[in-house]
Amino acid sequence: DIQMTQSPSSLSASVGDRVTITCRASQDITNSLNWYQQQLGEAPKLLIYTASSLQSGVPSRFSGRGSGTDFTLTIGGLQPEDFGTYFCQQSYSVPYTFGQGTKLEIK
Amino acid sequence: QLQLQESGPGLVKPWETPSLTCTVSGDSIHSSSFYWGWIRQSPGKGLEWIASIYHSGATYYTPSLKSRVLISVDTSKNQIFLKLSSVTAADTAVYYCVRVVAGKGDVWGKGTTVTVSS
What we know:
- The structure holds two protein chains of two kinds.
- By secondary structure, chain A is mainly beta.
- In chain A, 0% of the residues lie in helices and 52% in strands.
- In chain A, a hairpin with a 6-residue loop joins β9 (84-90) and β10 (97-98).
- Chain B is mainly β.
- Chain B has strands at 3-7, 11-12, 19-25, 35-42, 46-53, 59-61, 69-74, 79-84, 93-101, 104-108, 112-116.
- Chains A and B meet through β5 and β10 of A and β5 and β10 of B.
């Protein structure tokens, strides 16, 4: 199975900050990397697919980059509704696997 | 608007075989070109892909669960089912139904909690 490792596991930031979350795959997954946001008590929501494509309806302050094994999710100008937990997921090969999550908290 | 609604037994005893149902509204499973799947989330193991199915019956199972899981679909009722056998406390989780597009879950249900306890 492909292992997905996110860093950091948690971070604190303020409204208006720019934050970056990293996801690393245990092998080359080309650009088959997706990002999800999960608010407390809710289901995950797809934000970005194929590493850098913004899902319909997702604000443009979210952006993704990377290919191969190293990927980043950047939120430019944090808004109050952006706090929650973020997960990466590889869709390169089955079984599809997720990172352990990055909890983004208000400073 | 596509909506997925999971339902399940809630509390089950060890070694039982609970069945979960996902009811799809706003799209037809039979006519869509999507896979449909189940993903679970537990504090101990995080998010875990369980299984996926196409309306034709083609299926995929995560190898670690394949021997205990059965996914099926009833296109006439627009429902997807998951049966998990011989459950233990490790199967306690929130179970989500998802629409699968190119390996990603683009629409999720709200989830149903399964707690395994005697």
